[in-house]
Amino acid sequence: MQIDAIIIKEQDNVATALRDIQPHEEIMAGVGDEARPFVVQEFISYGHKFSVKDIALGENILKYGEVIGRATREIRAGTHAHIHNIESLRGRGDLETGESKNGI
Amino acid sequence: MEFNGYRRSNGTVGTRNYVGILSMVVCANEVVDTISRQVQRTASFMHQQGCCQTPVDIKRVNETLIGLGSNPNLASVLLVSLGCESTDLNDVAKAISRTGKRVETIVIQDVGGAARSIAEGVLLAQDMVQKASEMERVPCPVSELVLGLKCGSSDTTSGLAPNPALGITSDLLVQAGGTSILGEVTEFIGAEHLLAQHAKDPQIGLEIIALVKRTEERAKSVGADIRGGQPTGGNIKGGLTTIEEKSLGAIAKAGNAPIQAVYEYGVVPRVKGLVVMDSPGREPEILTGLAAAGCNVIAFTTGRGAPQGFSFVPVIKITGNRVTWDKLQDHMDVDVSAVMEGKESLPEAGKRIFREMLVVCSGRLTKAEISGYYKAMDIYTIGPVI
What ipTM was estimated for this complex? Predict the structure, then answer.
């Protein structure tokens, strides 16, 4: 099965690109043994993530079926999901001192 | 299943047979380095510690040096001391001697400076190497292997191919009666609940959670977001967004075996099977900690291409990133990028790493050994330099 991106667990809201993906390209995203067609809205580098559904501000980001962080802004389906729109919930010494630049 | 190793007098098995030249303190590094360069088949260990530190850290440095000197990959050990450091030369020498191996010492301030110490050290080391060279490899069961698990310069391929493949390798070793050590506690943050489920009993699970809390509190104490430090700038370029995401990929290299025990940094496990050891993720400190804990082989997965090895423990580099495999041939040992491309299953890749590991343990050199890329090592300390 040829896939261009992988959704590791069914409940995940992000996928990982297995090659560079061009804007508006129709790709196949693997979920388990299944490959689903999906259109990516912007350029996604190999190894980077994109949202597979609309994600609201403050919503948890799920990969491996686990929480890997929280959306710091709305992430529309098919767009790049990375440090510009996801924050970590752990090791946040900045939140305790009020030094956070992007905390919500 | 067997490999060909060096059976030591205390029963442990080496996969290598070096004479170790170990520095007691940062100020003895120059002498250690020069002796080691002048005598073939020696392996040096230098570091930045050993003086002007709190007693907690001095104890840590002494114990780490004892662990390193006792590692079965060393046939004998030459300890080089300046003379005025806080570490305890006699204690370290005595403890390493208990393994049955020959231990020699040089004190630079007593011998009369670097030049005389180097001359004396070179002559001693030459004799030690000749004696060590009489040792022969003999068939040994794989249960004698103590495998260190490490990932570095990770990207999103790490959690998808090399780490889960290495997890299968580790499970195979544990099933065969061997030992696997998982460190890098920083990279448990966000995934500790899953590791705790692998603990052999609830108490070990609580110890894992407590260890992660201690590490996270230490990171938070500087008042900054851990991101940038963890994940690293390179991890972020590779697509990893948060420490939670990195951790969830990192713990896959521990496989599914039950976690038998939790140890402090550099402590030799008293049980077989999969164990956890406190350590940060950075190469110099964790590779040293694994060697001090008695690892006779280390498997190191990488996404973007981390080059570091260790001077007397073979470090096998495994990548799932095809670009890294093609570009960094002088650093990579095993390619599992076929897993990323759907052309090899994870169990197949895990078994292949296991076979490669036995070949390396029987004597085939790793890229890190061939290139000599293992000089920048250090000991993980906790307190301030004072």
Answer: 0.93
Nearest residue, CB atoms, B248 vs list A46, A68, A93: A68
Cα A63 to Cα A72: distance, rounded to the nearest angstrom: 17
Confidence check: pLDDT of A6 > 50: yes
Domains of chain A: which residue ranges?
5-97
Q: Quote the minimal CA–CA distance from A95 to chain B in Å.
A: 8
Distances (CA, A) of A53 to A46, A75, B43: 20, 8, 54
Neighbours of B269 (CB within 10 A): 20
Q: Does B244 touch chain A (CB under 8 A)?
A: yes
Strand-by-strand arrangement of the A66-71 sheet: A60-63, A66-71, A86-87
Give the distance, in angstroms, between the CA of residue B288 and the centroid of all CA atoms in the same chain.
Answer: 5
3-state SS assignment for residue A11: coil
Contact A98, B223 (CB under 8 A): no
The pairing of strands A86-87 and B2-7 is unpaired
Strand order in the sheet with A26-31: A34-39, A26-31, A5-7, A14-17, A49-51, A80-81
DSSP bridge partners of B104: B78
Nearest to B316 by CA among B138, B144, B150: B150
Q: How far is A101 from chain B (nearest CA, A)?
A: 9
Residue B196 backbone dihedrals phi, psi, to 5 degrees = -60, -30
For B166, B174, B179, the CA distances from B272, given in Å and listed in that order, are 18, 8, 5
CB contacts, 8 Å: B189 with chain A: 90-91
Chain A residues in contact with B228 (beta carbon < 8 A):
none
- Token digits of residue B343: 């052309």
**What is the dotted CATH code of the domain comprising B18-132?**
3.40.50
The letter for the amino acid at B63 is E
What average pLDDT does the segment B340-365 reach? Answer: 96
DSSP-derived letter for residue B280 is -
B18 sits in which H/E element: strand B18-23
**Burial readout B152-162 (b: 16 or more C-beta within 10 A, e: otherwise):** bbbbbbbbbbb
H-helix or E-strand spanning residue B162: helix B162-175
Q: Which fold has domain A5-97?
A: 2.30.130
SS3 A16: strand
Question: pLDDT tens digit string along A52-99?
Answer: 999 999 999 999 999 999 999 999 999 999 999 999 999 998 887 655
Q: Is-above-0.90 flag for pTM?
A: yes
Residue appearing with tokens 């809205």: A41
Please name every residue paired with B228 in a beta bridge, in sequence order, or none if there are none.
Answer: B232
Q: Where along chain B do its domains lie?
A: 18-132, 142-371
Residue B315 pairs in a beta bridge with B298
